[in-house]
Amino acid sequence: MAKRSGYTEAEMRGILRQLEYVQGDVRKAAKAISRTSARPFVSRAKQLAPVWPRAYARYKDGKAVEIIYPGNLRESIEILPLRKTKTSVIIGPNLKDGGKPQGFYAHMVEFGTVKAAPEPFMRPAFEQTKQTIIDMQAKGAKRRLKAALKAKGFDVSKFK
Q1: Residue 27 half-sphere exposure toward CB, CA atoms < 13 A
Q2: For position 99, what pLDDT does the model report?
């Protein structure tokens, strides 16, 4: 019988429950694992983000208020530092005001507008990296679980 590759989401949740049982509060560990495992998704989203061939102006009240440069959207995709999320991370365009990068228009590119066809890049990036993300989360959780068991004095030499 061929060995399957990768972990399922149910297996991942089981590993996190074991870690919670041994370590107690796993939110900090889960957040760190999530940040690490999100990197392939961010990288792929940046690769797939379309780049406009020339700079263009953003207007407000009939006046150009900002110049949007090619590659601005690509540069703005990152793991966002939101404090409200306990164990997960948010990946998307950084909406910094007052300077590059600023990807306020990512949703218009992803889903399209009345005048522009959609050019999806975030959804395909997630679909292409989903199994890698789950595998990295499972491996990170197992590593943390092994360290927590070792700290409590358990023999982890046979831990898989």
Answers
A1: 5
A2: 60
Q: How many CB atoms lie within 10 A of CB 77?
A: 26
Q: What gap in Å lies between CA 95 and CA 29, rounded to an integer? A: 27
92 domain-assigned: yes
Residue with tokens 């943390």: 144
The count of structural domains within the chain is 1
The reported pTM is 0.77
Separation of alpha carbons 91 and 88, rounded Å: 10
Query: Which spans in the chain are helix H?
Result: 9-23, 27-37, 39-48, 72-76, 106-111, 122-151
Q: Is residue 1 part of a domain?
A: no
**2 pLDDT exceeds 70?**
no
Distance, CA of 49 to CA of 119 (rounded, Å) = 8
Which of left, alpha, beta for 137 (phi over 0: left; psi -120 to 50: alpha)? alpha
DSSP label of 115: S
